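Posting this for the archive.
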Amino acid sequence: MLDPRLLSDPQILAALAIAGALLVVALVLILRRPRQDHLADSLAELQGRLAQMAGSQAASQSSLAERLQTQERALIKGIEERLTALGQRVGDKLQQQTTEATKSLADLRERLAVIDAAQKNITELSSQVVGLQDILSNKQARGAFGEIQMQDLVQGALPPSAYSFQATMDGGQRVDCLLLLPNPPGPIALDAKFPLESYRALREAKDETAAVQARRQFSTAIRAHILAISEKYIRPGETADSALMFLPSEAVYAELHANFGNLVEESFRRRVWIVSPTTLMATLTTVRAVLKDVRLREQAGLIRREMHALSDDIQRLDDRMAKLQKHFEQATDDVRQVRISTEKIGKRAERMEELQLGEPAVADVAAVEAAPSPEPRHLMQ
């Protein structure tokens, strides 16, 4: 039984086809010959050809088997090389993926640590927000919150001599803060108000009816605060002709100016200026500039008097320097006279040595005394 791989070889198929064709030709020739004596020759020739074809086929089959073995060995070697290369690539890929997975896990751990820290901060912030909500839910605590925020702004912008917290006025009213400005304009009252309930109701209104009612409550609360500040803290002769109402929430301040222009206009008419933390800081900066200008004006007279006194001192110093210069000139002249006398004494001594104890003539002595002595070179200079 032939190997199925041999049947797939084109040469073997061609050889089999030729053998079959020769066999058919031989049979045809045998059938066509009428005589018996040629049959043996034909059979012998046919057997020879078949033997030749069998030998050729055996050689072809041997050559084909050898070629198949060579191809099989080459194929196995190629497959092994490919499997080795594939295994190497798979190993490298697995190593790379392992490295990347390790790095990703390290990054993931770091991010989880950051998320854990952020979660702790969020938890702390949530507790602080809850605490702030508890504070703002109580009217007294909410009022204290507004006053503390106002005090921080005032203390950070003005010197201690420019304000007074919880100041008592002549009528017994106590104001949260009194800005001590000179006349004009005079002390300005600053009072903190925080209408949180009406603002929350306005923000949380579900329908138009609830919104209208919340707006009415908010307007009533703001108007009541404006009237109270205008009546209590604006006193002719004691305070300035205006006062400040501090809203410690920028949101409430924005809502008031955006949707309640009538209340803002009413506060202007009653000379109650509504301020938020931002606008209060700007107002306090203006107040500080005014105080600085007033202080400079107060010190201007003192500076002028000190300048006059300094001018007098300079004039006295100039007079005394002139007197001292005269004294120096007189002392210089005295020194010059002393030098003249010493030179005359020296000349007389030299003269006496030249005479060697002899009596000088009277005329010579008189000539020496009358002769002027030259002044020292440094005095002439």
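Confidence is low (pLDDT under 50) at residues 374-381. The CA atoms of residues 87 and 93 lie 10 Å apart.
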